[in-house]
Specification:
Layout lengths: L8 E12 L2 E13 L4 E5 L6 H8 L8 E10 L2 E2 L5 H7 L4 E4 L3 H4 L6 H12 L4 H14 L5 H4 L9 H13 L5 E5 L7 H18 L2 E5 L3 H7 L2 E6 L2 E7 H6 L4 H8 L40 H5 L5 E4 L2 E3 L3 E2 L4 E2 L3
Parallel strand pairs: 3-8, 3-9, 6-7, 7-8
Antiparallel strand pairs: 1-2, 1-4, 4-5, 9-10, 10-12, 11-12, 13-14
Helix pairs in contact: 4-5, 5-7
Length: 334
């Protein structure tokens, strides 16, 4: 990842709301971040923290209604994805930005062969003829480690194992050599052995192809092994953003620290009981006017109930949205 390189993706002030019978759910609240060329950005947080909704908002994959992207910009390659025409977005989506979904069985169409589903974006986005697209599809299946690739082009998704279906999804996402790959918890439904294989595959492909990757996960162990930077989300907001080694060495937000304590130790004695974060995530029925984590936080102060903390820059590339300073054990200097 080149130092000082311009971001390939620059997101500013993203807000996404879901309209429901019970009122509006403010799922994403003023999220801002960038993604550098060749970088792998890990996005972590509990279920409901806004990880997937943020990334799906960027490429307008959420059904509208009920989803409504209210504010923000997401500039990719000079184009604001949130405000460009639908046709231009369709050319970018699947062409320059690839997306790997969590469950390959529901993401792959069961009535079309794997070969058709790989060649379709090649013919649409790159203008290949049938022969060229088929040749490229074989190369892609070989690239992601599927044996006997030429024969398997004629197979249907149900004829592949879970791990192989996920490899097919990766092949489809990589078909048009995207600049950015968004992977939404792509190993969650797989057993640990297959997870390890997929992670090694992604690291290898990233090195070969040089693409930028957003890796959404709840697994901090995965993030530690593959990410350059980590974005921690809670209550639809970014609460901490830092280089991966810095985050694990010097976590600043109480939520980040609590997440790290829930990971079982791999060295020394193991605790008799795993740590948990007491309480429940917030119900986001109104825009945040206070810290979303305050009811679960041992360091909460009066100010946390009156004001929603903005992100402080506390070091090179390290931001945190919290009024508490772990170095002093007291309020952070504004």
């Amino acid at each position: 990842m080149p130092d000082g390189a311009l971001p390939v993706l620059d997101v500013r002030g993203l807000k996404t709301v879901f309209r429901t019978r019970g009122g509006e759910v403010h799922a994403v609240n003023s999220v801002s971040f960038d993604l550098k060329p060749g970088e792998l950005l890990g996005v972590v947080g509990e279920s409901g923290s806004g990880k997937s909704v943020t990334m799906m908002s960027l490429i307008r994959l959420l059904p509208s209604p009920p989803a409504d992207v209210r504010e923000g910009t997401a500039v990719f390659d000079g184009t604001d994805l949130l405000n460009c025409p639908d046709k231009q977005l369709r050319d970018i989506r699947g062409g320059k930005i690839g997306f790997i979904f969590q469950d390959p069985m529901t993401s792959l169409n069961p009535v079309f062969t794997v070969g058709f589903q790989i060649t379709e974006p090649l013919r649409r986005h790159l203008g290949m003829n049938k022969t060229e697209a088929r040749k490229r599809a074989v190369e892609l299946l070989e690239l992601v480690g599927i044996p006997d690739a030429r024969r398997r082009l004629g197979d249907y998704p149900h004829q592949f194992s879970g791990g192989m279906r996920q490899r097919v999804m990766i092949a489809i996402a990589l078909a048009c050599d995207p600049k950015v790959l968004i992977a939404d918890e792509p190993t969650t439904a797989l057993d640990v052995t297959i997870q390890a294989q997929i992670l090694e595959l992604v690291k290898d492909l990233r090195q070969k192809l040089g693409m930028a990757i957003v890796w959404i996960t709840h697994d901090l162990g995965v993030v530690a092994g593959i990410a350059d930077r980590v974005m921690v989300m809670y209550g639809g907001q970014i609460v901490e953003l830092a280089p991966v080694k810095e985050l694990f060495r010097n976590p600043q937000h109480p939520y980040t620290r609590a997440l790290l304590k829930t990971v079982p130790g791999v060295m020394g004695e193991r605790p008799e009981k795993l740590n948990v974060i007491e309480g429940q995530p917030p119900i986001l029925m109104a825009p945040p006017t206070a810290c979303a984590f305050r009811d679960r936080c041992a360091q909460a102060m009066d100010r946390c109930g009156r004001e929603n903390p903005q992100r402080y820059q506390i070091g090179s590339g390290h931001d945190v949205a919290c009024f508490w300073d772990p170095a002093t054990g007291g309020p952070r200097d504004a």
